[in-house]
Protein 1
Amino acid sequence: MNEEIVSVSGVYFSYNGDFVLENVNLKVKEKDFLMIVGPNGGGKTTLVKMLLGILKPAKGEVKVFGTSPENVLDKIGYVPQKMNNVNDMPLTVLECVLTGLKSGFFKIRYTKNEIKKAEYVLSRVEMDKFKDKKMSELSGGQVQRVYLARALISSPELLILDEPTSNIDPYGSFCFFTTLEEINREKTIIMVTHNLNLLATKINSVACVNKYLLYNDKPELTKEMMEIMYGIHDEHYCSMGAYVAEEIKHLTKCEGENCCHYKGRI
Ligand SMILES: Nc1ncnc2c1ncn2[C@@H]1O[C@H](COP(=O)(O)OP(=O)(O)OP(=O)(O)O)[C@@H](O)[C@H]1O
Ligand SMILES: [Mg+2]
């Protein structure tokens, strides 16, 4: 049986009084590829920060690899939603990747082995030829690839990505998703995204976070998830509403596992 990598049980969290997460439960097993979706402000990044031990639940328990997240940070690679501080520093691409080494942030000299590793992870995201460029000179999508390399350099067993593909072009020569699928053969992946096209990749489960967490152990949005994601669009007042109503109609007709209408449509 696959090992349990993440276990979130009965978790509540509030920043300043009002709960942004309530009674959240989630299990992620070894080699799972979980996609986390949900509206802006729903609590996705908050949940991710709890998996990293940056935030602590007001109630409930978060375990990663069977223990508190801070005990296993060396096993977790993280691609944050925002990383302004790294971009503002005059770092080269290679140096940025090296800061992903757990002992790397304040280092001035790196070993040959560490540099070779950085070059290797850069080649995995097809950014090796940019290694001496300044981070500030890269395009948005190139920066996101470098962040992925930075998360990979410490050979993590669990990779957590918070909206890693917002600047990635879908038709470029480099396919971010194929790379993630390859990585998923060796590692567990949790990815927050608003890009529902990713349902067509090899993710195996979906969580929708909007204060509460809904979970599906299949790579499909349930009807309840669709309503949370698109609920405010009214068919009569919003052109998006007609599209959503159509999607929901198809979902309610879904005949279970063998029904592929949804994947085929996006
Ligand atoms: N540091 C903070 N202090 C106070 N409130 C916060 C803080 N960070 C987030 N929040 C609030 O908590 C709620 C959840 O925020 P969170 O960043 O987890 O949402 P999200 O699902 O990641 O949204 P998005 O899709 O926009 O990234 C929001 O209402 C947000 O305004
Ligand atoms: Mg977020």
Protein 2
Amino acid sequence: MEIAKNVLLVFRTEVMYQPVIYRLAREFDLVFNILEAKIFPRREGRLILELRGTPDRVGAGVAYLAKAGVEVTSIADNIRRDDERCVHCGACTAVCRTGALAVDRDTGEIAFVPERCAACGQCETACPMRALAGVNIERLGGVEAVR
Ligand code: SF4
Ligand code: SF4
């Protein structure tokens, strides 16, 4: 059985130019998609990756990244919608390309599925209630980018 996991990788300057991703693909037999990327010159690089593989391989790959000095943050574990603020207007669904925000046909409400989120930040801008603050690659789960 294969799983897919979206993670934020933060590369500080000391690991930014190492062939870490190359080894991840080659040695752990993982398929990955780059969902978002942001470079802060001479400071850090940030990647949102979707990792696909068996649970063992994904776990081993994440452990390898951490050991190599890359900061690894699970997106699903660190991203939240403020349900107290959400009024289910649906504005965010128009900009969400991954299906993380979509109409629940049973309830008519807008469901948020963190496991599908790519932290692109589009919904943060679209939401009139600021229910999705911090859902972006620069400020994921309180992991603030170095300025
Ligand atoms: S745009 Fe904001 S208030 Fe509207 S459904 Fe999405 S999260 Fe809720
Ligand atoms: S940040 Fe918002 S718009 Fe982007 S993938 Fe996640 S839920 Fe969808």
